[in-house]
């Protein structure tokens, strides 16, 4: 179950507060972890941010080419957006608290996303 | 220094954002910003009541006794040293001892990438009337400028991560004020992409303002990552080594939190 994988990732990383698996081609959140309580508007905004930062439709947000990993750090939050290796429209949107080991989290989140995207 | 100046300096210190870690150690220099000896003198200059200040850089530590914004002397160092200056009360009357103290500090901390300080209860040291020498006086003798005010946050961020950046474009109020490295690609981003991106991004985040660091891995054709830092009137575009992702994020949080 996709939600189980998202729940496991969130449980492993205490600073993670919400996870959402999305499809960039339709710009829709498909599933979230079971603990997140984001409203529909917030999910839509998260997906729109993912589409912008990861360059939906092949248009880079900034520079030369769309990224496979984007992040936004604010004073209170770290948002991370990851693209699946084999299916470029499959993305994982992550909301975390500001204090986070981002390298470790991103590595686990990538694994989680690729498993979900690959139907494992 | 006049009392109003001293008061202004203390107020400036109070608004600095030097992080304190779990052990109570405060980072006073990172990436040689400020310069290590200046940072050490700055910490001594902040010390009014008698304290033992423990400066740490890597595995090395230097314990000094400070009071009344003066350095009384170097109490101990680790790894152990047989330097004769250890344990001596400093005095203006003994310039060679002052130079020896400088040389020892420089030898241990002079090239440190990161220095922390902990303030601990004083240790017995010298005689009661031996006051040492003021941090300001040492700064003059050692030709060091004590940094008395906080640097702008963006400047701190650029300094701390300088080695990770291959190019930098710093814009303030729409004017380019600094370029580092080959900034041609960043200038192109600034003139052709930034405005549209910011407009689109503001829509998605629904008015969320304040300091932001946006990182995009592999955004350049050569594989390097792009980042845009936003703070008040400053916009900074950088090309950076993607392996520095965690360092960039953590330094941003530390400086802007």
Instruction: Give a quick account of the main beta sheet of chain B: strands, pairing sense, barrel closure.
Output: 6 strands, antiparallel
Radius of gyration of chain B, whole Å: 22 Å
Quaternary state reads heterodimer
Low-confidence stretches of chain A: none
What's the pLDDT, averaged over the residues of chain A? Answer: 93
Order of helices and strands of chain B: HEHEEEHEEHHEEHHEEEH
Q: Which series of helices and strands of chain A comes N to C? A: HEEHEEEH
Mean pLDDT of chain B: 87
Number of strands of chain B: 11
Fraction of residues in helix of chain B:
25-40%
- How many strand units of chain A? 5
> Could you say which overall geometry of chain B the principal axes of the C-alpha atoms support?
elongated
List the helices and strands and how they pair.
The complex is a heterodimer of chains A (120) and B (257).
Chain A: H1 2-12, E1 16-23, E2 28-32, H2 40-53, E3 69-73, E4 78-83, E5 90-96, H3 102-117
Antiparallel strand pairs in A: 1-2, 1-5, 3-4, 4-5
Helix pairs in contact in A: 1-3
Chain B: H1 3-14, E1 26-30, H2 36-45, E2 51-57, E3 60-67, E4 70-78, H3 95-109, E5 114-120, E6 133-134, H4 135-141, H5 153-160, E7 165-172, E8 175-180, H6 184-192, H7 194-205, E9 212-216, E10 225-231, E11 234-240, H8 245-256
Helix pairs in contact in B: 2-4, 5-8
């Amino acid at each position: 179950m996709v939600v189980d994988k998202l729940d496991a990732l969130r449980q492993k990383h205490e600073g993670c507060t919400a996870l959402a698996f999305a499809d960039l081609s339709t710009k829709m959140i498909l599933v979230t972890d079971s603990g997140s309580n984001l409203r529909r508007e917030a999910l839509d905004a998260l997906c729109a941010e993912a589409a912008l930062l990861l360059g939906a439709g092949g248009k880079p947000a900034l520079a030369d080419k769309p990224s496979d990993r984007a992040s936004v750090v604010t004073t209170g939050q770290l948002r991370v957006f990851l693209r699946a290796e084999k299916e470029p429209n499959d993305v994982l949107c992550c909301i975390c608290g500001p204090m986070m080991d981002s390298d470790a989290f991103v590595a686990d989140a990538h694994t989680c996303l690729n498993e979900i995207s690959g139907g494992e | 220094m006049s009392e109003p100046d001293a008061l202004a300096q203390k107020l400036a210190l109070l608004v600095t954002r030097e992080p304190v870690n779990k052990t109570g150690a405060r980072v006073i220099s990172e990436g040689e910003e400020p310069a290590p000896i200046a940072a050490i003198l700055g910490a001594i200059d902040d010390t009014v009541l008698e304290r033992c200040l423990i400066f740490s850089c890597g595995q090395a530590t230097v314990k000094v006794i400070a009071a009344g914004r003066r350095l009384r002397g170097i109490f101990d160092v680790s790894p152990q040293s047989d330097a004769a200056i250890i344990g001596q009360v400093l005095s203006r009357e003994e310039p060679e001892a002052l130079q020896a103290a400088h040389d020892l500090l420089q030898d241990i901390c002079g090239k440190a990438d990161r220095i922390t300080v902990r303030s601990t209860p004083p240790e017995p040291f010298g005689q009661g009337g031996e006051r040492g020498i003021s941090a300001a006086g040492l700064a003059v003798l050692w030709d060091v400028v004590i940094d008395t005010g906080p640097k702008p946050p963006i400047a701190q961020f650029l300094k701390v991560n300088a080695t990770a950046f291959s190019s930098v474009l710093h814009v303030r109020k729409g004017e380019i004020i600094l370029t580092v490295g080959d900034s041609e690609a960043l200038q192109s981003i600034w003139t052709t992409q930034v405005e549209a991106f910011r407009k689109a991004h503001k829509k998605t985040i629904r008015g969320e303002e304040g300091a932001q660091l946006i990182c995009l891995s592999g955004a350049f054709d050569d594989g390097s990552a792009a980042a845009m830092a936003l703070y008040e009137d400053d916009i900074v575009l950088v090309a950076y080594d993607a392996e520095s992702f965690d360092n960039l994020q953590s330094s941003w949080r530390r400086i802007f939190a």
